[in-house]
Amino acid sequence: MASHIVGYPRMGPKRELKFALESFWDGKSSAEDLKKVAADLRSSIWKQMADAGIKYIPSNTFSYYDQVLDATATLGAVPPRYGWTGGEIGFDTYFSMARGNASVPAMEMTKWFDTNYHFIVPELGPEVKFSYASHKAVEEYKEAKALGVETVPVLIGPVSYLLLSKPAKGVDKNFVLLSLLNKILPIYKEVVSDLKAAGASWIQFDEPTLVMDLGSDKLKAFSDAYSELESTLSGLNVLVETYFADIPDEAYKTLTALKGVTAYGFDLVRGTKTFDLIKGGFPKGKFLFAGVVDGRNIWANDLATSVNILEELAGIVGKDNLVVSTSCSLLHTAVDLVNETKLDNEIKSWLAFAAQKLVEVNALAKALAGNKDTAFFAANAAAHASRKSSPRVTNEAVQKAAAALKGSDHRRATNVSTRLDAQQKKLNLPILPTTTIGSFPQTVELRRVRREYKANKISEDEYVKAIKEEINKVVKLQEELDIDVLVHGEPERNDMVEYFGEQLSGFAFTVNGWVQSYGSRCVKPPIIYGDVSRPKPMTVFWSTTAQSMTSRPMKGMLTGPVTILNWSFVRVDQPRFETCYQIALAIKDEVEDLEKAGINVIQIDEAALREGLPLRKSEQAFYLDWAVHSFRITNVGVQDTTQIHTHMCYSNFNDIIQSIIDMDADVITIENSRSDEKLLSVFREGVKYGAGIGPGVYDIHSPRIPSTEEIADRINKMLAVLEKNVLWVNPDCGLKTRKYTEVNPALKNMVAAAKLLRKEL
Ligand code: GLN
Ligand code: ZN
Description:
It holds the Pfam family Meth_synt_1. The protein is an alpha/beta fold.
């Protein structure tokens, strides 16, 4: 029985790589300094895995920015605008592709499957001349070997690489990316030959796209690719690794018939049906890498249950051919529990970060080999028992209330047009009403105030005074700008999820539980460990304070249940929807308290609703159903005259438009600034959206200040498709990352554009 790790976080236990990268980018340290930090991180990770007893240790899972960009560098697929002229790709070209430079913007970034990690999308076309332009894979293999650690080099598989690419600018949108297979395979052969020559005996190809709903043409590309590679791969053990979901039947057949491949890796945490496929037949003599330790969460594995699963699998494939593994790369979990100084011991005993997961994988492998570490297993069982019975986890009243929601529907009693009429009577807004999404610029001073309050360096009175002053400044500014529906600016919030999590029961926070989001950027998701409830109002004080400063409507500002869920580490001892319903009930209480306190417009942000959409189509309807239901629960109890807004951070919702309509919000503001066309096409195709809608009229992600004409032009485009009495005018997201010198003129032009058009309507 052997053990394997699919991949490991690169940032380091205290984000060492982040700081080294940012210092290098700022010109404060040299390339050599950066390389040294990176090499130290790699060596400590390899040693840690070796010490933990892991047999198959991955290499080439380190990256200075992104593993897909590394593959692009290996293939020499540098878009021409970066001016690369050949030779080994260095930091200049590499980081220009990742982040852009003074004259050229970065390559596009997009979400890695349904994770919060973002990869750099390869831009390909018939003209691309591929060449072996980065020897990183073989260099890292040799580097580990020199340290006395034998590793399994990991490459992104050729078919997944192409399926994750997009046609470059100027290339026909319908260009078949898979037609490039015969051009990239020669490079893959060179890489494999190099690795072989360096002494590698195993190699891992990550082909996660195999879990998607792929048609037969795409599946055939896998068969073709590995047949072509077969002779080069001969003499090596070859693992094809899949993760993030069940593997569909057809894909399973294709995978297990691939030429030259000797081992298959499966995510058995998310892929519960894959188990049945394996039971139904597994090729003789091949290896099964069983991903039973969750790479996407922070909970300690249930070792006893895993042993049972592994025993059953061993019965099918034979003990010698079974390898215990993680469900996916540990990139998607936090790094090391050792650095958590603020979590209490009880909660800590329930958790396992990447470093602890290594130990779990090895303990499982040893147990299967008849060498069970009984003390370790006993401690694990005790931790699981304590979590089940802990009063901190269970709140019976909440459980009951959430259970009562299942099966029933929750919807406001009247339809949206009736409600909009009632609201208009109360709010008396002009046509094309203007508003913003919530946050105003977060100045250094503001961050200092929050930090010092948290650290007890300033008193509550001083803190409240400072925040009130800030709110007052933001309110006055909006009045001067003549914005119609105001916001308080969210100066008291560090993060839109953390702020609520800190005030709800059932949440815990880490100090170093960082997960890479993209490049040097990391997020620190809260941990939802118990039943969620709201001990007391969370935003009422600030919203009413803000409302008291103006006679214009002040929007109450909340984060929605689905977004809180999707941006947290969620408990796995109950279905996700149950946790979501619990959060929904807590937000519902807050909405009703805001209404009672005289707040007539309440925005419930669902920035991350789309993010939770399952990868497989067959599972999407169920998710959308409970997600949308959760949102409706939050505001089912308000009067017709209370206007409910929601906000979403993307515009490509064409495929989930029905769910957006089902949310039954009165007004939705959405990000739109990068593609009017895509969004508007939905409505052009006849989708009826009776609610108010505010497609962002300018991009807040850029420092650029849009002119009045430009904004008016965009509003006009929208008016061609949408009715004038439903259209709102707003930026496309919160303003917290911008400076006042950008926000003031941009909003001024936005209001001017709205006024200009009102005259014409
Ligand atoms: N209300 C939040 C803000 O303005 C929304 C942020 C978001 O959509 N990501 O900051
Ligand atoms: Zn947004």
